[in-house]
Amino acid sequence: MNAPAELLVDTPAGLARITTPAPRDVWWELAGKDLDTNPSQTPHWLDCLCATGPYRDASRLYEFERGHRLVLPLAGRTHRPQILGSEESWPAQWGIGGPVCPERVSPAEARVVFADLARLRALRVGVRLRPADQDVWADAAAGFRLEPHMTQKVDLDGGFGTVWERRFGRRVRREIRRAERSDVDVEVDRSGRLVPAFYHLYRKSIVRWAEQQHEPLALARWRRTREFPPRRLEEVASRFGEGCAIWMAWCAGEPAGACVVLRHGGHAKMWRSAMDRELAHPVRAVPLLYRLAIEDACEAACRTFDMGESAPGSSLAEFKASFGAETFSSPRYLRERLPVSAAERRLRTAVKRLIRFEDA
């Protein structure tokens, strides 16, 4: 880990001390007190990112004159000069980041954070906010470009009985009852033992996704494996421990469907899922897994079950909504010295048009 560096800054909110990387004990303390902290805002998440990708800990602790403290999880690129790299919370595909703070941040303090980020020498600086953080932080993001994102979350208030009766749709309840009558066995692993079985299903899913999206299989395998290599789940399972659950459905002794759920405090997060459609679909294995994972989150006294981002209006978004997942805005704010994101977007669009790629 890098040796911490401290900076004392005179700001409109008073003197502010900025320490980077953020001391882990303080980060864990604030994450424990901030009831809105997601699994993806913990030090474990950053450690997994750094252990499985070209990233370093660039997190920042802000201490304000009136006693408020907040940590901004941040990952910087390695093997590049800082002026050609990025510092983001988080990089694409790593979900929601944003400030961890148990106390309400004032508009002046929020502006201090974004002003500090604007001074970084990185080519790109980005922060993706939690839905609960939008108002004060969005108003403070002067000079940062808004990139819309969403997430779908199930409200677990009232316990699983309430969720089942009032939030699950009728059709998904029927499919779950059908699964419960089928020849399907389910187990949950909190030790990482089922990582190989999950990746067996993930490789099968890549083939299915490539067919659905009209993507060359070789390209799909390269892209998906680069995005989610086996060691990434191994690292997450190792660092999160009991907070990482791999739910696996078996049919006739063969893995049929699986999902990975992470947990921190009052929040559960559906991180990854995969299936062998020929085995899983006839017995409705995936709805059963989701039902059991949501019930488990209720029993652990979680307040929300985050099912992640989906393309608005897509079949995946509708599937999540059938479990009672509501859509919340979770915007990302970017500042770039050069229009890197726009160039990347144009390149992706051109490649998709060339291969007739279809977004799921």
Features:
360 residues, alpha+beta, Aminopeptidase, seven-stranded mixed beta sheet, six-stranded mixed beta sheet, 13 helices, globular
Query: Unreliable runs, pLDDT <50, ≥5 residues?
Result: none
Q: Treating each run of at least 4 consecutive H or I residues as one helix, how many helices?
A: 13
Shape: globular
**What is the class of the largest domain in the CATH system?**
Alpha Beta
The domain count comes to 2
Question: Can you walk me through this structure?
Answer:
The protein has helices spanning 24-33, 43-52, 107-118, 134-140, 159-167, 170-181, 195-213, 217-227, 230-240, 277-283, 285-299, 315-321, 340-355; strands at 5-11, 14-20, 55-57, 60-64, 69-72, 75-77, 86-89, 124-128, 145-147, 150-155, 185-189, 244-251, 254-264, 267-275, 304-306, 326-329, 332-336. With 360 residues, the protein is of the alpha+beta class. The protein has two domains: 5-149 and 332-355, 3-Layer(aba) Sandwich (Aminopeptidase), CATH 3.40.630.30; 152-329, Gcn5-related N-acetyltransferase (GNAT) (Aminopeptidase, 3-Layer(aba) Sandwich). Strands 11-12-13-14-15-10-16 form a seven-stranded mixed beta sheet, sandwiched between helices. A six-stranded mixed beta sheet has the order 3-6-7-8-17-9. It has a four-stranded antiparallel beta sheet with strand order 1-2-4-5, with helices on both faces. Helix 3 (107-118) crosses helix 4 and helix 6 (170-181) packs across helix 11 (285-299). The longest helix has 19 residues, at 195-213. The two termini are 39 Å apart. 41% of the residues are buried.
